[in-house]
Design the sequence.
């Protein structure tokens, strides 16, 4: 008979970071929002409601 193995149901299996928030996607030239790692919404920079300073900061710091 094999030994009993106890499973940890709350252990983090995937250690990759999950995208959450607004990012700038270079390949499509769009701002994309992610919720728990799933693509939720996308918008072109001209239709994005953020001010220019926010857009530039997001493009610089959160581009994927």
Sequence:
């Amino acid at each position: 008979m094999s030994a009993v193995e106890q499973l940890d149901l709350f252990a983090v299996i995937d250690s990759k970071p999950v995208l959450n928030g607004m990012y700038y996607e270079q390949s499509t030239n769009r701002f994309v929002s992610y919720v728990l790692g799933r693509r939720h919404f996308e918008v072109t920079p001209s239709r994005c409601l953020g001010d220019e300073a926010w857009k530039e900061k997001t493009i610089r710091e959160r581009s994927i």
About this structure: The helical segments are 52-61. Residues 52-61 form the longest helix (10 residues).
